[in-house]
Amino acid sequence: MTRPLLLAGHEERLRDESTGVRSPQFRRLLEECERYPGVSLPAEHPLASITYFGPGAANLALAYRMTGQEHYLTELRRWLAPPLSFPHWGKANMPDHDLDAGWLLHGLSLAYSWAGEALPQDERIALRDKLLLQGRRLYEFAIESEGGWWSSSYWQNHNWICYAGLATAGYVLREEFPEATAWTERAKDNFETVLSMLPEDGSNNEGVVYWRYGVPWLVSYLDVLKEAEGIDWFATNDYLRETFWYRLYQAAPDMERIVDHGDCHDRRSGHPVAMYYKLAAEYRIPQAQWLARKVATEFFWREAYESDVRPGVRAEAYQEFLWFDPSAPSEGPEELPTSRYFEDLGLVVGRTSWDEDATMVSFKSSPGGGHKAWETHHRIKQEKNWITLNAGHHHPDAGSFVLIGHNAYLALDEGYSSRKKTEHHNSILVDGHGFVNEDRYHVFENLGHEFSARITTATLGGGWVHAVSDTTPMYDRSLGLKKVQRHLVMSPRGVVVVVDDLEADAPRSWTMLLQTQNPARETTPSTWVAEAGRGNLKITALDDVATSEVIRTAIHANPTSSTPHLAIEKVQYTLKRTAESTPSARFVTVLEPTAWNDDDVAEVEAETAGRVITVKVMLRGTVEEITIDLDGGSPDCADPDLAGSGFAGRSFDSSLAGQPS
């Protein structure tokens, strides 16, 4: 290739900036390459993933290109030798046709473009021919499998990774092998479709960890397309313009950890520094540049060593160097709203502040893949009989929530699980049953269009968060359900009130589940405390529930099928509160996050007038009053701080005898 991909026209500037404004990123690149000689490389293809060869080769090639130092080229040749000798890329799962092939095509193609001319001729030809062989294999599979697996799974990271790798190889090889133009054109057609089908709110149904793993490949492809063809899809795509906000609002208050809806291997795999740089550069998002720097200077090494996602953040050094824009503005999130509603994913998020010890709640309810994917998938299935939505990383968690406070996870999501169940979440069971089609990996597979949960209303502002979920359609029709609705409120002080409004056409047993890190300890027949290190969760039931129990819940997952020893087993504890068999039931639950050493206990009370519930939480002279109309009417509340459909909230000084301040 006569023009080095991604470097043409930029090379001298990058080299000059490597000792100036780009010095930290250049240092990262060279330090990453300095560790490679100590890495033992396999002579034979291991059972485990070999994706790390791709970015490893790219890092070494870029270091050589920038410095001209021969030892980087020598090490690059060592890193190229194993994947060139392997007859196939990938061993345990779909050899030549899946993630290993996509990762290696991308990274080794960049290495060929940047350093191929410096390789001995036989090694250069071997690399070129291997890229051609693997590109042909992946391209042919993409055609053959269209309408089935990743070739047309538009919302799935496998699609993005494989097509990005195929496109990169195509751009590098097309001058020597015109057939590779078909690869780039197919990838372009695919990504044009993908970008049109992604939700405009920037959300991701796979959760933060797979957002962190998959979305950078959308950016990688658009970057390659822009450089190779001069086509700028960054400027026209709403998803990428908005997706940083999804990630920011799914950050735990300490910014280091995450809200772990969906398949999340752990709580520290969430920060693609390179992509933050790129989004900051393309969209001038000050908070993206700020977060990239914060991660790079404060969190980077902890994520590098504790993350369970491979190859992980260290391997992205070449992209950090290339994507950093020193002119991009930088600003923290302090002036941003503390709450946000991502409508497509039905995700409502709020926090008491942007401080690291704040309380935050994340509440979600949507169909599999989010609304746009669900609707589009069913339309395509009807028109073409294609399966385009592989939402295996989306859980049966509609109507569930995660609560974090005082630097502790207080009400949990289980993260990754192999057999996904409603009972793993802060959800409702009916006659002991969760959502239809559960207890399997892909719980939305083959579900009809009508199985669609949603957020019916959301009201945010002034530190208040209110939302209502409707998960009635997610249960088996034989249960005869008329209503499974959850009203959730978070107050400015961080108290969460949950009201579950439940109804069926015959008597049913109703169970509310609350997942905690440690067993909830009963303090009275209607109150519990769940300890969680730096924070405690005080739980108050303001209803007449017949029974309660706390059980140990073990959850198994194997996020990497090629590496069984990386299987995860997590343990959480479930507070189960069950109402007697009845056609209708109502749970009213108050969750109060406190510091571990805070002995003050709020006084909590509830008043019910038909379908209107008023909850008062009184502590240290302040009353927070939450009024909920279960039918969505306008509650009778004098001078509310915030009011919306079915909700009013106000805070006042208790010495004023209930008068608003």
Radius of gyration: 26 Å
Oligomerization category of the chains in this entry:
single chain
Beta-strand percentage?
Answer: 15-25%
**Based on DSSP secondary structure assignment, what is the total number of beta strands?**
20
Task: Produce the secondary structure layout.
Blueprint: H1 11-17, H2 23-35, H3 53-67, H4 70-85, H5 99-115, H6 121-144, H7 157-173, H8 180-197, H9 208-229, H10 238-249, H11 273-283, H12 286-306, H13 317-323, E1 339-342, E2 347-351, E3 360-364, H14 371-384, E4 400-405, E5 408-411, E6 428-430, E7 454-461, E8 464-470, E9 481-490, E10 496-516, E11 521-524, E12 527-532, E13 535-541, E14 547-557, E15 568-595, E16 603-609, E17 612-619, E18 622-629, E19 642-644, E20 647-653
Antiparallel strand pairs: 1-2, 2-3, 3-4, 4-5, 6-10, 7-8, 8-9, 9-10, 10-15, 11-12, 12-13, 13-15, 14-15, 16-17, 17-18, 18-20, 19-20
Helix pairs in contact: 2-3, 2-13, 3-4, 3-5, 4-5, 5-6, 5-7, 6-7, 7-8, 7-9, 11-12, 11-13
